[in-house]
Amino acid sequence: MPMANIQGSLPAPRYTCGTVAPRTPLDAAAVRRDFPILRRDVRGRPLVYLDNAATTQKPQRVIDRLVRYYSDENANVHRGVHLLSAEATDACDAARERVRQFLNAADAREIVWVRGTTEAINLVAETWGRARVGAGDEIVVSEMEHHSNILPWQALCEEKGARLRVVPVTDTGELRLDACTELLGSRTRLVAVPHVSNALGTINPVEELVRLAHERSIPVLLDGAQAVAHMPVDLQAIGCDFYAFSAHKVFGPTGIGVLYARASLLDEMRPYQRGGGTIRSVSFEETLYADAPGRFEAGTPHIAGIVGLAAAIEYLTDLGIAQVAAYEQELLAAATAALSEVPGLRLIGTAPHKAGILSFAIDDIHPHDVGTILDRSGVAIRAGHHCCQPLMARFGVPATARASLACYNTREDVQALAAALRTVRTVFA
Amino acid sequence: MTTGLDDLYQEVILDHNRHPRNFRALEGAASGEAFNRMCGDRVTAYVRVDAGVIADVGFQGSGCAISRASASLMTEAVRAKTVADAAALIERLHQALLSPPGSTVDQLGTLAPLAGVRQFPIRIKCALLAWDALRAALAGQLTSR
User: What is the ipTM of this complex?
Assistant: First the structure.
């Protein structure tokens, strides 16, 4: 593939962090061989998996890691003097350091294990939010928010008598930075927005947003669920205060995720849940809680998930995240072109800087019907509101069909999608 | 056409989707709402009952071809039925659509095309949405009798 093409399709520098020009292009055919599920058939046709924004598939390396953990290594962390427990503890510590490197966080203590992005945001709302947000204060979110980055703040605002403010998006699906600037005021306690929109694919200008907020001493939380598998993320360059992602959207297991929080913020936050692992000392009169991150990790963690996530990150790092980003940009361009040629198809979310997410409508055919017909062709997409009902309302649709790419998708997948979409129209002709 | 889709998107279904019958709200009539948590689709059913008989029926809402066609077929099927007969039909349809694909579906009459959803388990809820709304609308009528 021509280098000029790759360079040209990379997002503008201000939208990315730490991107370097790829050395060698990604070999998608080789990547596919790493994912056993991609060999299976669906209704007698090869699986075309384009629901990666919902969850990504798992490479053999991650699957093997989970099996190895349970076959050879299983033990609880922290509390054992025996070898297996020490090894499990070391593996979790190493995984934390692996995540730190992956995100380029300053300190591994800023990495907190959670169940996923949703729990990470709830943790921040329940601890930092409840201590820091009061009556008359404001929390700024955006119109493109996943429900998971609305509901915890909405509930907090109701409890505290605070106000939820919403940054509108443009018709192409970009954050209105001018409106955002106007919303930021002396009562703003937090800006919470997605790094990448799960329903539109928009890559938000997070460094600019952080700069705008920090000029006013307002912390920023980024929902990174749709970013980490698809582009380099450098938290020190972005400068945000909280960042959240789920392992299962970056080729890792379900049930485990990461909250990054700036150490100075973690130090002032109370425990989220209380229990084993969170304490320094306990008596019936008083409990002293541990420092971060232990203070936020009550109970036995999802150890298999943690080591599985580390394996997933190692896998992605070996592929080269810059190579993955460049390849997906090229594939997104091909997919956008292919879908634009499907009669009656309208893309929802056409920002110039996008990740590989294509939301669309065809004529007035309901996305569920589109999804069912595609499924019969072996093409897996998502149809629905994508947990973004306010955004659907903004675009005047009840739902959309959404195809979302990952590094193992190919131009053949894109062609299969386009062909199946033509079938949709013939059914409803 | 791809396997199975013929059974789902039968001509009757497509016709009722394109031209839904009784697609209107009835002012002052009893109404009930049903909501599909999975997709956010919502249907409101309206019934006007006169001396225990459904005198008028309509529906509103947004949904897929299946839910819309099913709602439209429903309005035709229950008009002029007694409330008790309509309630029995709702139960019969639920039982039929939740039965395994291929098993015989007795006494569905004009609703028989809906049985195609049995091959598409995820879509059964779409076909039953309007009927759940009707059941809610009739609930008030049944208890007030």
Answer: 0.89
